[in-house]
Amino acid sequence: MAIGPVMVWLKQGALFYLFAVCWQHYHIAKQHFGFMMLWKAKNRERGPVEQKLDRWFLLASTILPLALFVVWTRLPDSRVLNAASTVSIVGYGALAAGYIAYQVKKYRAGMPMNAPKLLLLVVLVPLQWLAFMYAARLGPGGIVRAGITLGLFHSFQYHRLLWFHNKNRYGAPDAKAKHGGVAPFLAKNFGYYIAAAIGLHFLTTFLPQAMFPAVEWLQAALWGFAFTHYVLDSRIWRVRGDKELAAALRM
Known about the structure:
Layout: H1 3-9, H2 13-42, H3 48-74, H4 79-108, H5 115-136, H6 143-170, H7 175-179, H8 183-186, H9 190-211, H10 216-221, H11 223-236, H12 243-248
Helix pairs in contact: 1-2, 2-3, 2-6, 2-11, 3-4, 3-5, 5-6
């Protein structure tokens, strides 16, 4: 929570928000990849060619729009970077066309289609490009607008996954004795869960911003909650190494 205030004190608030949203976006890209891998595992989709295509298409679709935003808003006069951007866009177009062609080929061959994975990509890919293209029109500060839009979409996914996990893991009759804490209580009812989520957001984010809207160092400090989430998330969702987690996700 100290990173933001220190950067603001050093008159580098804009750079801090770029760093914050880039970290958020990296986190979201990893999460989307994780969601996709869950759907692939659930549908037993293990072909090596499709595995590579899925990986490269999703990562390119999430990382390239952000990279282009940074070039267009912060280094617009760099001929080298602009040339690299053009090459990247052409390469991405070829990758997208190849990905779509592969899916059409599968469908025509009567092979099983992974509908949840494809629906995720149908929403995710256009949203990434639209959010960052719109944000680029607003200059460097537009990064926050893109972060809000993409973060909101990710949050809906994440809460759905978390509720599914909590209901399965903490909803059992012996959960309170086995796990303790408030998780078994919140898993009893979706209303309890969502009320706790909204309440925490209100106390830790909305209320401080509403009470002190002009205190920039406080606004920056609140990103510490998100940073903590990014670090913890990279450690706790490891299905292969956690049998109890795998069971809760019905894997």
